[in-house]
Design goal:
By secondary structure, this protein is mostly beta strands. 8% of the residues lie in helices and 35% in strands. The strands form 7 sheets. The protein has a 5-stranded mixed β-sheet. It has a 4-stranded antiparallel β-sheet with strand order 1-3-6-5, with no helix packed on it.
């Protein structure tokens, strides 16, 4: 009975303790004003993405907080693999990787730092870090002017330009250019002066016009080095053709009318021409008959004056036969014949007057105008002009208009 009574008395106590909730113990509060801890991250890198790395330079990675050095070095991977050593600075916030030997020139690399890298507070890297970069490459010719295969290059005013992909010479005063390399060769040889207009652009200016109608080969020989030691591995060769002599303009022009019977015919070329070849090529003809005259060449202009006066109102043809050569030489002369024609002035005649012939009631104070068909010498008109009733020369004033060939009294 005692046992039963004890059991009976214990049940209400257990029931009451079960119904009463246990007190809740609050979690310790974080200090006010402190942000939640953030995982570490990379702030910057040397080289920057896409930047070339010098062959003797170290890779530098800057984190936003001190790092656990062992975990970062373990997470550091380079592809292709490069042997080297780690260096830490800024209280383990900056990592430098220095290769045991210079980097391979012109090689692309990829650096990865996995999330196994941890900060000193043991938080892992927020995300894997990846950096693609390349080391300084080889020296190359990036562009040339004139370009390879260019035709009809003006031989009289030419600057041959070579542009490289990286600096070849240091920044320096013009006085120091005498010590700089002269990287251009021309075949056939050309005298002139070369100049580095900046660290990677070289310009060569011939001292005299190049030969017309010629092919020139330009060479930048292999072995040239840039400021980083990059080597031009092979000769860079290209070629261009200079223009042949061509007729640019003539005086008189093709189809001209009213040309003087005592003309000086001029033929202008695109360059200075060889006088002997120009003299041999020039012909002035009327109805197939050669017209004699004197010819001389000044620079790029041929001058021809007929020995005798030409016929009035006649058509003449000028021919410059192909083969005219440049004064500077060259194997190819003017490639095609050039011809033009002109008509000489006709004999003068009166084509009208004001007042007209037979006109009545003309104004008594009017002037008298004679219109001619061609330009005339005004000094020759009045001596051949008579009036009835008579008017003497001292009683009149005359005026000549070359625009419409009118002589006014």
């Amino acid at each position: 009975m005692r046992i039963r009574t004890a059991t009976f008395l214990l049940l209400p106590v257990l029931l009451v303790s079960w119904l009463i909730p246990s007190p809740i113990v609050p979690a310790p509060a974080l200090p006010q004003g402190l942000p939640d801890p953030m995982p570490p991250r990379v702030l910057q890198s040397i080289p920057a993405p896409g930047e070339e790395l010098p062959l003797d330079a170290a890779i530098e990675i800057v984190f936003d907080r001190p790092m656990d050095m062992a975990s970062v070095e373990s997470a550091f991977q380079l592809a292709p693999h490069v042997a080297g050593r780690f260096e830490w600075a800024d209280d383990a916030q900056t990592l430098r990787f220095r290769p045991a030997a210079p980097w391979e020139r012109g090689q692309s690399y990829e650096l990865r730092i996995s999330q196994e890298a941890r900060a000193q507070d043991q938080l892992p890297l927020r995300e894997p870090f990846r950096l693609r970069f390349a080391t300084v490459g080889f020296l190359e010719v990036a562009q040339v002017i004139p370009a390879d295969g260019t035709q009809d290059v003006d031989p009289t005013d030419l600057a041959i330009t070579v542009m490289f992909n990286r600096p070849v010479v240091p920044l320096a005063a013009l006085a120091e250019q005498a010590n700089f390399p002269q990287p251009l060769q021309l075949q056939p040889p050309v005298a002139g002066t070369g100049e580095w207009v900046n660290t990677s652009v070289y310009v060569f200016r011939p001292s005299e016009p190049l030969a017309g109608g010629s092919t020139y080969t330009a060479i930048v020989p292999r072995g040239l080095t840039d400021t980083t030691g990059g080597l031009l591995a092979a000769d860079y060769i290209w070629s261009f053709d200079t223009a042949s002599p061509m007729v640019v303009t003539t005086q008189p022009s093709d189809g001209a009318e009213m040309v003087s019977v005592r003309p000086e015919i001029q033929v202008q070329f695109n360059m200075a021409v060889d006088p002997a070849s120009a003299r041999e090529a020039f012909h002035l003809r009327r109805d197939g008959e050669e017209v004699a005259g004197t010819l001389h060449v000044v620079g790029n202009t041929l001058h021809f004056t007929p020995t005798q006066q030409l016929e009035f109102d006649a058509v003449y043809q000028v021919e410059i036969a192909r083969g005219v050569r440049a004064a500077a030489g060259g194997p190819r002369g003017m490639p095609q014949d050039y011809t033009f024609t002109f008509r000489t002035v006709p004999l003068p005649k009166v084509i009208g007057t004001e007042p007209q012939d037979g006109e009545r009631a003309a104004h008594p104070y009017t002037s008298f105008t004679i219109r001619f068909n061609v330009p005339i010498d005004p000094a020759t008109v009045l001596p051949h002009l008579t009036f009835s009733p008579n008017i003497t020369a001292s009683q009149v004033i005359t005026y000549y208009s070359a625009w419409d060939h009118t002589f006014t009294v």
